């Protein structure tokens, strides 16, 4: 009986050792699987870290782009403000030019009205705003054209020193009197010709 019990105990010990061996092998395989899973988890964490870094870079780029857009909007606003200022200045300059034009026009009308009073034989009166300059030129040159008329009138004064010579001097004065009348049309023609030659001075 004792030998049978020892044999049974030996068999149980062998089966238990076999079970322990199987359990150890299973544990080793499970540890290997766990190690592989840990390695995969580490690689996954590395990918997550890289993705987070990429997202951080994208956020930084978006922030820089937003700042650039903000600065661009500020520059556009400043340009619009400058354009508004320039437009206002142009409007003010246009108003000043219009006022200066009106003042110049009124002064030209006043000058034309003042010049239209003067008249010269053979020359039409000056019109308002057009013939002011042309009427001034014949008026200034009229004395030079009429100057030859004075020597023709001097024999009248020189022909009357005595009473005895008065009848003899009368025919000379009568013959000398028509001379200014003959020269007068020529003077008028010269004045009219000079007035026509000076027509280029009508523009202000």
Offer a concise description of the structure:
This protein is mainly α. The protein is built from five helices and no strands.
For this entry, give a set of tags:
rod-shaped; mainly alpha; about 200 residues; 5 helices
How would you characterize this protein structure?
- It contains five helices and no strands.
- It has 204 residues and is mostly helical.
- The protein is 83% helix and 0% strand.
- It is rod-shaped.
- The chain has helices at 2-115, 132-146, 149-158, 166-176, 178-197.
- Helix 1 (2-115) packs parallel to helix 2 and helix 3 packs antiparallel against helix 5 (178-197).
- It has a domain at 116-202.
Helix content: over 70%
Count of β-strands: 0
Gyration radius, to the nearest Å? 63 Å
The major β-sheet equals: none
- How would you name the oligomeric state of the polypeptide chains in this document? single chain
Q: Treating each run of at least 4 consecutive H or I residues as one helix, how many helices?
A: 5
The computed structural class is mainly alpha
| Unreliable stretches | 128-201
User: What would the average pLDDT be, to the nearest integer?
Assistant: 72
What is the chain-wise order of helices and strands? HHHHH
Per-chain topology:
Blueprint: H1 2-115, H2 132-146, H3 149-158, H4 166-176, H5 178-197
């Amino acid at each position: 009986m004792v030998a049978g019990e020892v044999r049974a105990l030996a068999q149980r010990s062998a089966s238990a050792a076999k079970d322990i061996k199987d359990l150890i092998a299973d544990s080793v395989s499970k540890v290997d699987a766990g190690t592989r899973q840990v390695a995969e988890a580490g690689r996954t964490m590395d990918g997550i870290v890289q993705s987070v870094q990429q997202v951080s870079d994208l956020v930084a780029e978006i922030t820089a782009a937003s700042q650039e857009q903000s600065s661009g909007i500020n520059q556009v606003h400043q340009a619009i403000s400058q354009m508004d200022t320039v437009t206002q200045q142009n409007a003010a300059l246009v108003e000043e030019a219009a006022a200066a034009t009106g003042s110049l026009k009124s002064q030209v009308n006043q000058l034309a009205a003042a010049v239209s009073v003067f008249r010269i034989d053979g020359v039409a009166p000056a019109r308002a705003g057009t013939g002011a300059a042309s009427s001034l030129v014949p008026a200034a040159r009229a004395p030079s054209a009429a100057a030859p008329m004075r020597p023709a009138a001097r024999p009248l004064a020189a022909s009357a020193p005595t009473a005895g010579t008065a009848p003899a001097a009368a025919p000379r004065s009568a013959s000398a009197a028509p001379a200014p009348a003959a020269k007068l049309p020529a003077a008028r023609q010269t004045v009219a010709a000079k007035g026509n030659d000076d027509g280029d001075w009508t523009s202000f």
